[in-house]
Amino acid sequence: MLEASALRAANHRVEEAPAPLPAAERNPLVVRGLVFETPRQRIIDGVDLELPDNRLTVLMGPNGAGKSVLLRLLHGLLTPSAGTILWNGKPPDGRTRRSQAMVFQAPVLLRRSVLSNLRFALGLRGLGCSRREMLSLLGMLGLEPLADRPARLLSGGEQQRLCLARALALRPEVLLLDEPCANLDPASVLMIEEALMKARAAGTKIILVTHDLFQARRVAERIVFLHRGRIAEISPAESFFDTAGSPEARSYMEGRILV
Ligand SMILES: Nc1ncnc2c1ncn2[C@@H]1O[C@H](COP(=O)(O)OP(=O)(O)OP(=O)(O)O)[C@@H](O)[C@H]1O
């Protein structure tokens, strides 16, 4: 019974279907020989990765595989120990970061109202947005009635949706998300997925970290599977779920330990 209802949940489709890919894709990403190590551990161990187009990429892998570290490296929040990351042929710098947005697993919000959290983030980037536009964005994530509430008093799920609204308000060319739906209820998950599909359809390049196989099935167009800091597999989503090619990915999906 549990399995059948879980499968039904997995099969709910997000309503916004992605638009066809534009002819000229922006923000191609090329990663070569990427290493990130500390004196105690090599966390990212020679990653080569090319994401030439804006297909929605889901980054998967077991706990401790290095997914969050990889996302931070891509966004330029960490400096590689070796190797290169090139966005549009250039290493990530302040300008790259300003054209991107990142949503962290733990919501990070200011002691201000919901609306003023959006306004503040827009102000930092010198962007404008009318109150009506901000309310419409909040509405898409079910937050419009909470617009004037202190952000820190929202529930965990509401805060996570606000973080996504704030990221989307910046109209990023690239959106990096680190388990944005961890601990959210199904309705919140659906709102987030629909917002992501809209952004995807509008041309935003999305890289999403998730452990939720059902979510990955619903939204992914490409899967990158990371294991012990190395890429074990890069596959189109359909083939990944039908016949994951790497033993690591198969073990992960079967719930077998991967350490
Ligand atoms: N800034 C850091 N300095 C040193 N070690 C770190 C740092 N960030 C993460 N680590 C270590 O790197 C490894 C990978 O961490 P990371 O958070 O990237 O894993 P993950 O794949 O995102 O895992 P999870 O699925 O549990 O979130 C872990 O062993 C972690 O302790």
TrEMBL record:
Originating organism: Stappia albiluteola
PROSITE patterns per the UniProt record, alphabetical: ABC_TRANSPORTER_1, ABC_TRANSPORTER_2
Lineage: Bacteria, Pseudomonadati, Pseudomonadota, Alphaproteobacteria, Hyphomicrobiales
Matches recorded under SUPFAM superfamilies: P-loop containing nucleoside triphosphate hydrolases
GO terms for MF: ATP binding; ATP hydrolysis activity
Domain ABC transporter: 29-253
Gene3D superfamilies: P-loop containing nucleotide triphosphate hydrolases
Keyword terms, alphabetized: ATP-binding, Nucleotide-binding, Transport
Family: Belongs to the ABC transporter superfamily.
InterPro entries for the chain: AAA+_ATPase (IPR003593), ABC_transporter-like_ATP-bd (IPR003439), ABC_transporter-like_CS (IPR017871), P-loop_NTPase (IPR027417)
Residues forming coiled coils: none
Superkingdom per UniProt: Bacteria
Protein name (database record): ATP-binding cassette domain-containing protein
